[in-house]
Amino acid sequence: MLKEETVNALNEQMRKEFYSSYLYLSMSGHFEQIGLKGFAHWMFVQYQEETDHALKFFNYLKSQGSRINLMDIKEPEHEWSSILMVFNETLNHEQYVTSCINDLVDISEKSKDRATWNFLQWFVDEQIEEEENVRNVIDQLNLIDDNKSALFLLDKEIGQRIYVPLAAGQTGK
Known about the structure:
This protein has helices at 4-33, 37-63, 83-110, 114-144, 148-158.
């Protein structure tokens, strides 16, 4: 049985993951609106992945017989002044999520909750990948600067990203 502090922290992280999902869906809509279908698709994949992450917390809490508390999700931004601003915000957000995951690991270590610690290791690894993916896009955006032809090509390339749903075992089902 999970300690109350752990249950509360996991429910809060689930809320943060749903917010991430909501934020990336908003970014996807923004890119659709300005005609960047590839960037819109990339962010839609982010939305799908973050939804999976939230459900992973939901299913873990369920598997532990713990209380599930769905909380309010604040409204995300809807407009950005540049593509680079969107991805800088994305990187900052992913770094924030990484710090939250690390805090959860600390809670599990403090309470000697090895099952939760083990569960969280997937997220530790995932956050390394999340931050790297966003940094790669930022690097490419910085390279192309204001070159519209290069932006067109990057939009096509980034639109090739494929959503890979988590397997049943990975979602905690």
